[in-house]
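Hi R.,

Here's the input for the fe (ii) ion complex you asked about:
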Amino acid sequence: MTTDMSLDAIIDDIDTLEPIPQITTQLIDIAQDPDSALSEAAVLITHDAALTANLLRTVNSAYFGLRRKIESVQEAVVLLGLNTILDVVLLQLTASRLKAAQAGYDLAAGELWRHAAVSAILARKFAERVEAQNINRIFTCTLLKDIGKLVLNQYVYASGEEIQRLVCQDEYCFHDAEREVLGIDHAELGGRIAERWLFTPDMARVIRYHHLPDENLLEDTDLCIVYLSDCVCSMMGIGTGRDGLSYRFSDQVLERLNYGANGLDQLIMEYALMKSEIDGLMASLSLG
Amino acid sequence: MKTTVVDVSDVKFSRDTEEALMAPSLGSCVAVSAYDAHNRAGGLMIFMLPNAEEMAFTASDEHPFMFADTAIPHFLQAAESYGLEATALTVSVVGGGQMLGQTGRSNVGGRNYTMARQLLARVGITPTHEDVGGRHNRTLRLRIADGGIEVKVAGQSPER
Ligand SMILES: [Fe+2]
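And here is the predicted structure with fe (ii) ion in place:
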């Protein structure tokens, strides 16, 4: 199969990918709109019985440490804040799409989602620290950045040896090897999926460039945070597959976000100190 | 055989010969294992960063296994308390991978490994098995029955 033929087949496959539940897109829009009302999200979630049940089970878990039992979405939003509720719901909604094993990437069941979820939680923390403007968008983009792997998985599986050779012998970044062999990489593909699913152009852009292919992109603080969260998760081995550490690290991103000379040590230390909290949240999500 | 997972910034010991201790998916973190063949017991510890002192980290009492400079002395001491004989120890060092472009200070994996080597050398220990560096995520298993080490690199079949 020539690269062009496989590229056409890959692009066609975007349409066979089961779309993300519609409520996800609606909640993402609400999360990014500063004028949205609390009630709007609560009403949407309440209309979905399974989602509501999952949400209530999670917020009533030990992790959230609430004194009394929460019995409605409305109450959960009031007590824990809209951002927390949206995070929990989006984490649970994406789990259904991202939990399957991805043999092409040597990811066991649950690992792709674990990487997505932990890097998103981490991205929110980093974003809060540098006082980024679109914290909810950064969270969502980080959660969905590797969505392209769902489509590319079978192609990476079929061309595994060729990709592995470029990565191991020729020092290719994994996404560069994907593009060389298959004509497209999982990040670009993720950007296209985001467009097909009618996410905002800003979201599609961050997903498309989440491995920071170009230095000009350093201007984009949101993208830098998404990128760093991905790097830290890979270094910490959280939900990493055969692509593992085969990406390029940029010191300049640390400078861009005003981390000093010990920037990366600092960032990993911050992760280490948040770890038990992140683990607690992750455990509360998978109660069911 | 039952497998017990060791978390990053943590340690586990065992004398259960039916058990293996596992450090899953190591990236830049470094796992140090110690095995005493005489007593058929061993331990596994994973640290994340090289130097607490340099980072002015003040919570080392709470998190002794986060940084190499506190983690390695603590690990060796804990091994001794657990009953591993210092003179009979077989030590392995695994992990410390790095991304492309991680050089100098940002090469946390490389610095982790160097620090581990130095601290072990200081007490006269030379690791008998090392599998470090590169752009791999590694999973390490230490079998308590015989001290056997197995390292699996993501995307490849297991070795040894
Ligand atoms: Fe990616």
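One thing worth noting: Residues A 145-146, 186-187, 210-211 surround fe (ii) ion (CB under 6 Å).

Cheers,
M.
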